[in-house]
Amino acid sequence: MQRLIRFFAGSVSALFTLAVFAAPSDAYIQRDVMQCGGVEVAVVSSCRSVTVQNDQEHLLPVCSDQTININGKVLRRQIGRVSQLTTAGATTPMLANVVVAMDCLKGTKGSLVAIGGYGGCNACPEWHGYYSTAGKLEMYAYSNAYRSFGSKGSSEALIKAYGVTAKDLREESPAVKRITYGQP
């Protein structure tokens, strides 16, 4: 039994050691926070300080993971990955779309969290999503000028349920929080 415990403890220790060595030396976690309808909203990004080369298709921050945390609920967008050449000379997998803005839309019947994502090029798809303050994805559109890559819900349903206006959904408010990437 004691041998089994030592084996288990050694295996767990080895896993933690491998995880430490697996992360690149320029890796960092960035946490961008705002308040909306009395709850905390955070975008947590796992990124690297290295950048993609200028001739690559998606000129994005090099981020491998991103979560949207609303009132303690951890959410992920369904975003694909791309592999691109970095300024360090290595090809690295990364998210094909990163969050670039978040906002709180205050309607007459409740608040909505608005999240905006960018794909890194003029023809790349943008991601626009609206969440309740309970963390439910109410509406999203993931598209570019040529096609839709997925959607859910409608503007009309948000207007009716939350008392926001069409202008609120169409335009950014002065309070929009822009997300700037870079190791703190």
Structural class: alpha+beta
First-last Cα distance: 47 Å
Approximately what portion of the residues adopt beta-strand conformation?
over 45%
**Number of helical regions:** 3
Mean pLDDT: 87
How many whole angstroms does the radius of gyration measure? 19 Å
Kindly state the percentage of residues in helix. 10-25%
Kindly report the spatial arrangement of strands forming the biggest sheet: 11-10-9-8-7-12
Number of strands: 12
Number of domains: 1
- What string, H for helix and E for strand, traces the elements in order? HEEEEEEEEEEEHHE
- Principal-axis shape: globular
Largest sheet: 6 strands, antiparallel
Low-confidence stretches: 11-20
What report would you give on this structure?
This protein is an alpha+beta fold and about 180 residues long. The chain has one domain. It has helices at about 1-20, 155-160, 165-170, and strands at about 25-35, 40-50, 60-70, 75, 80-85, 90-95, 100-105, 110-120, 125-130, 135-145, 150, 175-180. Strands 11-10-9-8-7-12 form a six-stranded antiparallel sheet, covered by helices on one side. Strands 1-2-3-4 form a four-stranded antiparallel sheet, with no helix packed on it. Strand 5 and strand 6 (about 90-95) form a beta hairpin. The protein is globular and about 50 Å long. The protein starts with a helix and ends in a 6-residue tail after the last strand.
In short:
The chain is of the alpha+beta class. The chain has helices at residues 2-22, 155-162, 166-170; strands at residues 27-36, 39-51, 61-70, 73-75, 81-85, 91-95, 98-106, 111-118, 126-132, 137-143, 148-152, 177-178. The protein has one domain.
